[in-house]
Write a sequence for this structure.
């Protein structure tokens, strides 16, 4: 294996830190080319001192200034950049072989697109990119012959369970030609799976972020608690694997041992199993089609001898149906629900709205928005911006109502 140079967009987050851990365990094969953060400059500073990348970027200008100051007396030659230009520059630099797209939310779209447009290998964790701009993004992937591989554990499990020896970077594959009938995404059900609906209004950000199986960033943790994460994943799977909403099912599997499954027309169900640890899918896509050590313990089926499955309770978790509906509507609808969700989750994390208002804000934003074809980047960015403004207004109303009550 030749040495690969890796850029990690979002290196200070949960996926970023796990990626660096896998790289460290395989340092003969992988070197860090660039690392990026938003405001966590101190964590980025530690990463720079350890991995000595060519570039580091703080999106936030003030944090960038503090980072530069902190490195004055250190003997590292890392060049420090800031802002969107800095992110795009490191994402598209020819000297990096692979870009790990691990920025959270819509902020990841433009830097990830910059990487795609140079035809690199992209390891995609940032699902919001595909939700916002699915058709356009996949078109760009094919046009620039980028190699797009999924980090999200469910999509990675699907990739491992599909006949992916046919996988090629510039061809849209019709998986039904290979006997695939359905993709089945598993969902842990999040921290409130057993909770009564009447208690949802009083749930705190801290409780919502306490995921039973995975340790993740705050936004995706709240998405898991509302099951919006699964809704985003259904949309992600649809664009990634070119499958319609009726060909994608969701099943609750609280243990998160089976990470997703593919049904074939002969009755076969292929699945990927393992301990719930993101280092497995990260190691898989870093080295694909080879395999490397990830540091994850082998699954012990005797210790994990009880696997449960059940249906989603849509009354408790309405976000999943909203996401299916947006996928069916197509055009800018997925971008609208993605933006509304980001606004609602942020308002919940700042304790401005109650947990059970998140689906209401997404639903109302979608209902009050015009949905148009999402065939250009401008249209997608405008839809995202308009939906954010509308969702903020709706969230403000919910906030004042809750103050009055
Ligand atoms: N965590 C998981 O296990 C997991 C699993 C599957 C998929 N994913 C997906 O992977 C992505 C990252 O998730 P995460 O849990 O790693 O999130 P996270 O822990 O919140 O980390 C997010 C990263 O993005 C950076 N960032 C945030 N806002 C930014 C902005 N405006 N501009 C530039 N950089 C920005 C953060 O920098 P600072 O640290 O400076 O804020 C951080 O490096 C999400 O799309 C998520 O859905 C995550």
């Amino acid at each position: 294996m030749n040495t690969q140079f890796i850029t990690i967009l979002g290196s200070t987050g949960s996926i970023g830190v796990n990626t660096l851990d896998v790289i460290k365990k395989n340092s003969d094969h992988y070197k860090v080319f660039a690392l990026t953060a938003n405001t966590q400059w101190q964590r980025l500073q530690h990463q720079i001192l350890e991995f000595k990348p060519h570039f580091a970027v703080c999106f936030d200008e003030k944090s960038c200034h503090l980072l530069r100051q902190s490195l004055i007396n250190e003997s590292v030659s890392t060049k420090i950049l800031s802002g969107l230009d800095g992110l795009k520059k490191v994402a598209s630099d020819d000297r990096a072989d692979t870009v790990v797209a691990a920025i959270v939310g819509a902020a990841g779209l433009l830097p990830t697109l910059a990487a795609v447009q140079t035809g690199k290998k992209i390891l995609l964790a940032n699902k919001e990119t595909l939700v916002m701009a699915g058709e356009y993004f996949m078109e760009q992937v094919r046009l620039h012959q980028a190699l797009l591989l999924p980090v999200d554990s469910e999509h990675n499990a699907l990739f491992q369970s599909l006949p992916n020896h046919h996988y090629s970077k510039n061809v849209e594959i019709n998986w039904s030609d290979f006997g695939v009938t359905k993709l089945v995404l598993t969902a842990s059900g999040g921290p409130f799976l057993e909770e009564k609906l009447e208690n949802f209004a009083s749930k705190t950000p801290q409780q919502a972020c306490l995921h039973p199986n995975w340790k993740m960033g705050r936004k995706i943790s709240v998405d898991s608690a509302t099951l919006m994460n699964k809704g985003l994943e259904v949309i992600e799977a649809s664009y990634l694997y070119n499958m319609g909403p009726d060909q994608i099912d969701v099943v609750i599997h609280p243990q998160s041992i089976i990470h997703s499954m593919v049904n074939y027309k002969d009755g076969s169900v292929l699945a990927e199993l393992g301990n719930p640890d993101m280092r497995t899918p990260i190691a898989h896509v870093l080295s694909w089609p080879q395999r490397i050590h990830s540091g994850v313990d082998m699954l012990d089926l005797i210790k994990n001898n009880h696997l449960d499955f059940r249906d989603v309770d849509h009354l408790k978790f309405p976000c999943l149906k909203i996401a299916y509906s947006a996928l069916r509507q197509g055009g800018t609808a997925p971008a609208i629900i993605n933006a509304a969700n980001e606004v609602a989750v942020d308002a919940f994390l700042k304790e401005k709205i109650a947990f059970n208002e998140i689906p209401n804000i997404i639903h109302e934003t979608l209902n009050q928005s015009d949905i148009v074809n999402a065939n250009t980047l401008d249209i997608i960015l405008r839809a995202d911006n308009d939906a954010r403004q509308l969702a903020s207004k709706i969230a403000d109303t919910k906030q004042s109502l809750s103050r009055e009550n």
